[in-house]
Specification:
Layout: E1 14-17, H1 25-31, E2 37-40, H2 49-59, E3 66-68, H3 77-89, E4 94-99, H4 101-114, E5 139-144, E6 156-160, E7 167-171, E8 179-182, H5 192-211, H6 217-239, H7 243-259, H8 266-278, H9 282-296, H10 302-311, H11 319-332, H12 349-357, H13 371-381
Parallel strand pairs: 1-8, 2-3, 2-4, 4-5, 5-8
Antiparallel strand pairs: 6-7
Helix pairs in contact: 1-2, 3-4, 5-6, 5-7, 5-9, 6-7, 8-9, 8-12, 9-11, 9-13, 12-13
Bound molecules: nicotinamide-adenine-dinucleotide and fe (ii) ion.
C-alpha cells in the first residue's frame, strides 16, 4: 500500500440499526419539526403492510403524508421529474426514501432536483457535474427494505436515461441521508429470489471495495467483516430466514456501501450494461458475473485474495478457492452460473462490451480492464 498522498475518508451518517428501529420515524420527524414528508417507494412496497403501518404511525402524530411510488425497476430520469412535481404541488418539507435501492435512488435524485433545476444529467458525476450541486437540499431520511445496495448510506443515485437506458451517476456529499432507520424486520418477508440477488450485490460491493485500488484500510476492514457476515447468513436468509440472518445481511449490505466509497470494479462494469440493455435486476447481474470478474483480478493480487479466503474460512487460501466459493454459493441460492440463463445472447456481446468500457465503476478496479477483456469475460460467462 502506498501512503504517499493524502486521502479523505468519510463516515458521517447516523444509523439507527435494529429490529423495530423504523418505528422511531414519527418521533424523529416531530423532533426535527418536519410535518410534511414525501415518501418515495415503489409499486410493490407501497402495498406491503409494514409500509401502510408506517404511514398510519406518522399520521397519528399529525404529520401529513404524500407517497410517490410510480418508478421503474431500473429508475429513469422521468421518474425523478414526476416525483419532484409531486413534492412541489403538495408542499412537502422532507423526503423519505423507503424501499429497495431503486426507490432510495429515486428519492435521492429528487432531493437533488428540488433546488437544482437544470437538466438532471448536468449533475452527472462522470462529467464532473458534482461541482454544480451547490444549493441546499431538503432533509433526507432513508429506510431500506432490501439488504443489497446499501444505498441508504450512499451519496450517489444511479438513474438511467429514458431513451438510451445508459446509467448516470449523480453524486454529492450533500445527498447523504441525515439518518438511516435500518430495521431488519422490514426485510423478513423478502422473497428468496430477491434475497439472493440483492445479497450477492452486497457481497460484490464488499469484495470489489476490498480489492479496489485506493488505499483505505478503514474500508478494507469493514469490507472483510461484511464478507464474513454474508458468508454466515446469506444462504440462511434465502432458504430459511430468521431475524439473525436478516440482521446480518442488512448490516453487511450497509457495510458494503460504506466500503465502496473506496471504489468498485470490473464486476459492476460487467453488470451495469445488462440492466441498461436487458433491464436485468442489478443484483442478479452482479451475482452471475462475480465469479468471472473476480477471477480476472487474481493475478498480481494474490495477497489480498489470501485475506479474502481466510475471512471466508476456505480450506485453500487462494484466489481460485474464492472463485469456487462464489460459484458454489450461487448454486446454493439458486443463481445461475451462465449469462444465457438470464437472457443474454451472443448477438448482445459487442454492445455489452461497448457499454462496459464506458461504465464508471472499472477505473477503480485494481488492474486496468480493456474492451477486449470485457468481451472475453462476457464470452466466458455466456
Ligand atoms: N446508490 C447506490 O449506491 C446503488 C448501489 C447499487 C445499486 N443501486 C441501484 O439500486 C437498484 C437496485 O436495488 P435493489 O437491489 O434493492 O432492488 P429494487 O429496489 O429493485 O427491489 C427489488 C424488488 O424487491 C421488492 N421489495 C423491496 N423491498 C421488499 C420487501 N421488504 N418485501 C418484499 N419485496 C420487496 C421491490 O418492490 C422490487 O420489486 C438499481 O437501480 C441499482 O442501480 C444503487
Ligand atoms: Fe451494486
Amino acid at each position: 500500500m502506498d501512503f504517499d498522498k493524502t486521502y479523505q475518508y468519510n463516515f458521517p451518517t447516523i444509523i439507527r440499526f435494529g429490529p423495530g428501529s423504523s418505528k422511531e420515524l414519527g418521533d424523529y420527524l416531530v423532533k426535527n419539526k418536519l410535518s410534511a414528508p414525501l415518501f418515495v417507494t415503489d409499486s410493490t412496497v407501497v402495498q406491503l403492510p409494514f409500509f401502510k403501518e408506517a404511514l398510519r404511525d406518522v399520521q397519528k402524530k399529525n404529520i401529513s403524508t404524500e407517497v410517490f411510488s410510480d418508478i421503474h425497476k431500473n429508475p429513469v430520469k422521468s421518474d425523478v421529474y414526476k416525483g419532484t412535481d409531486i413534492y412541489d404541488s403538495s408542499n412537502r418539507d422532507c423526503i423519505i426514501g423507503f424501499g429497495g435501492g431503486a426507490a432510495m435512488d429515486v428519492a435521492r435524485a429528487i432531493v437533488l432536483r428540488i433546488n437544482h433545476r437544470e437538466d438532471l444529467f448536468k449533475y452527472d458525476d462522470l462529467i464532473g457535474g458534482d461541482i454544480y450541486v451547490t444549493n441546499e437540499v431538503p432533509h433526507f431520511i432513508t429506510i431500506p427494505t432490501t439488504a443489497g445496495t446499501g444505498s441508504e448510506v450512499g451519496r450517489s443515485a444511479i438513474i438511467a436515461d429514458d431513451e438510451t437506458h445508459q446509467k448516470k451517476i449523480l453524486f454529492s456529499p450533500k445527498l447523504l441521508a441525515k439518518i438511516v432507520f435500518a430495521d431488519p424486520l422490514l426485510t423478513m418477508d423478502l422473497p428468496p429470489f430477491i434475497t439472493a440477488a440483492t445479497g450477492m450485490d452486497a457481497l460484490t460491493h464488499n469484495m470489489e471495495a476490498y480489492l479496489a485500488k485506493m488505499p483505505h484500510p478503514i474500508c478494507e476492514g469493514i469490507a472483510l467483516e461484511g464478507m464474513l457476515l454474508i458468508s454466515e447468513s446469506l444462504e440462511q436468509a434465502v432458504n430459511k430466514p430468521d431475524i439473525q440472518s436478516r440482521s446480518k445481511m442488512l448490516i453487511a449490505s450497509l457495510m458494503g456501501a460504506v466500503a465502496f466509497q473506496k471504489g468498485l470494479g470490473v464486476v459492476h462494469s460487467l453488470a451495469h450494461p445488462l440492466s441498461s440493455l436487458l433491464d436485468t435486476h442489478h443484483g442478479l447481474a452482479n451475482a452471475v458475473n462475480i465469479p468471472y470478474g473476480i477471477e480476472f483480478n487474481i493475478a498480481g493480487f494474490e495477497d489480498k485474495f489470501k485475506r479474502i479466503a481466510r475471512t471466508l474460512a476456505l480450506k485453500q487460501e487462494t484466489g481460485e478457492a474464492v472463485v469456487r466459493y462464489l460459484f458454489d454459493l450461487n448454486s446454493r441460492i439458486n443463481i445461475p452460473h451462465k449469462l444465457t440463463a438470464i437472457g443474454v445472447k451472443q448477438e448482445h456481446i459487442e454492445t455489452l462490451a461497448d457499454l462496459a468500457i464506458a461504465d464508471f465503476a472499472h477505473p477503480n478496479n485494481p488492474k486496468p480492464v480493456s474492451r477486449d477483456d470485457f468481451k472475453n469475460l462476457y464470452l466466458k460467462a455466456l
